[in-house]
Amino acid sequence: MIGAAAFRRRLWRHPEATAAGVVVLAWMWLLVPTAGGAGSAHGSEHHAMPVLPSTAGWLVMVAAMMLPGALPAARELALGGPWSRRQRTTVLFLCVYVGVWAAFGAVAHAAAWLAERGLGIDAAFVLPGLLAAAALWQLSPWKWRAVRACHRLRPLPPRGVRADAACAGAALRYGRWCVASCWPVMAAMATASTNLWLMVMLTVLVTAEKLAAQASRLAGPGAAVVAGAAVVVLPGWMAPG
Amino acid sequence: MSETSGNGGRRGARVRRDIWSLEEEQPWHPITRAYALGVREMQSRADSDPTSWTYQAQIHGMPDGGQPDDFRGQCQHQTWFFLSWHRLYLHWFERVVQACVEANSSIDYEVRAGWALPYWNYSPGGTRATLPAAFRDAAMPDGSPNPLFVADRNDFVNDGEELDPRAVLIDRALAPTVFSRPRPDGGFGGAETGWNHFNQDVRRMPGSLEQTPHGSVHVEVGGLMAGFGTAGLDPVFWLHHANIDRLWESWRLELGRPDPDVVSAWGTTRFRFHDEKGNQTSGTAADVLDTAADLDYTYEDIIVPAPTRRGRRGRVQPPSASEDSATGRSEGMPPGNDGPPAELVGATEDAVELSGGTQDVSFRIDRPRGPAADQRDAAPGRVILTVEGIEGVEPGRSADVTYAVYLNPPGDEDPDADPEQFFAGTLDFFGLEEVGSLGSDTTGHDLRRSFDVTDLVEALREEGRWDPGSVTVSFRPLRRGRRRAADDAQREVTAVRVGRVGLFVE
Hints:
The complex is a heterodimer. Helices cover 71% and strands 0% of the residues of chain A. Chain A contains nine helices and no strands.
């Protein structure tokens, strides 16, 4: 048990706590409808978003998957600013960051639709193909340059519109590099939004990449895990859950 | 340690001696000569040999941002592992040199049996702040090339001129009573982080000792010493770090300050090295806290000198009666990592460029709005000056100018005021060349520095020199031998961009 004063002090030190709560809620939202084994090992169910319309579903998935790795950055910027701006900085940074992923989601969904409907690519092979691309991307030096750039934050001006603009700019840069780092993984998730086990696995991977001190050491293991997932989701490999 | 020290605890521990004590006894003292012969032997080995000179230097940092492995590119900076990692590093280096010395029959038996790495205590100033001739002479007394000599240092250092007193000041380094604090300052030993070669962890922040004299001496000696990936190639690097390690002993044993809990990540995180035979070994901070028993060495002298004139406002305080000697916690004040966080009350709006000359910046200060506002009338909180977002204007270049930082320095209208009474600290940019590159995990982001200016602000307040609505911070280049860097208009210096200068209160 911790006392109220100790709890308050902890909140002082963690202005990102509210955002962490949003991550928990997002996961609860995703987990509850799939309780009892509704999650599927196959990933071509993007037409069947059972709980949420696709845009909201994508945002919930972004919150669940991509926010955990961004919380330390938000905390860093908030703690480095005036007291009165801490929550504002956290909210602004994370909203712009999610906005970047929302834009990516729109493009990814449109590309998936085009691939299936316009080009006639068998939907069953889109997810394995994207995971295979993600596995290759894990081994690319550009991927790890993006991860390192993702870590980079500059201190913000102390007050006013300039502070807001710099915070939004920091989130745009952060989001841009994050997309550059994780685009194949999240493109895969755009086509497999109800695939819970895949979502959990890739969340662990992208969060570890964001937070690891020597992130590029995860290149090989990460590539192996994603390549394994690509095989597992191939049609006929595993019976639908 | 995973391997017990050879003779630790069984007979008297070896004594690491001050290089100037040795050289004043006898130029080219046998211990100095033995070091030179050990270095020569290591330099003759293949670079891939873990006991070679090159490999040992690469443990600290990979040249040109090369990718680290499990052993190389592993030094810990801007983190609470800074002191313990370097203690382990020095220990295994010392064992390699000892093995070379013991195998060299041209060295006296007594020296072979008891050789320990000397340290360079530059802080008394004067001659002590110059590099001993044994490191500046191109040849050894027998006429052979001197392996301790490195041409790639600042000219004034190899000319035997002293380092600026502000680069070797230890008053502020030893002043913190807490080992580790979170941003905006790192306490004595650095902020709590995970593995942090330089700037991988967003929580990174160097401690007071890592800044000055550690970083400032690196940059002031210059050349190889100024770069992460090359510092270990200068034989004086090891004497410099032995002195930093000695100052940790002074802080712990003479001042009675507590280290972090040995069962914390600080005490249990394991780092890997090679022993003197090239075998893999490893160790933790908890393994190396008793230098005599664990590592077979002590220091000739760990007494803390009286504060200097400049250091009076950052003076070393003896532990107070209200302070818990085991934890460093004061009554009514939560410790560094659990107390109220510091809040920014003012900062520059724009980046500041330092190009070798004096640069003044002023910015507005607001009243604190958080917990510091509640405490303001009860007891003055800590005031921290921060310099953040530091990067080179031209990426990849090492720092070559160190600055003294002053708060509200007197102008021409106040000629009687002593400028040194406004001294806040020394700002070094050691590691600057690592900033900006994204090519490997060892490189990347900005440098951060901080100065506890609580006493200075309080003194300025009492003297009526403190404006609660604004502050001026002055950056002035250190003296380089007989000339000032600012006066040397012909010299091309590495321009540095500072993202933000700020003031935090706690």
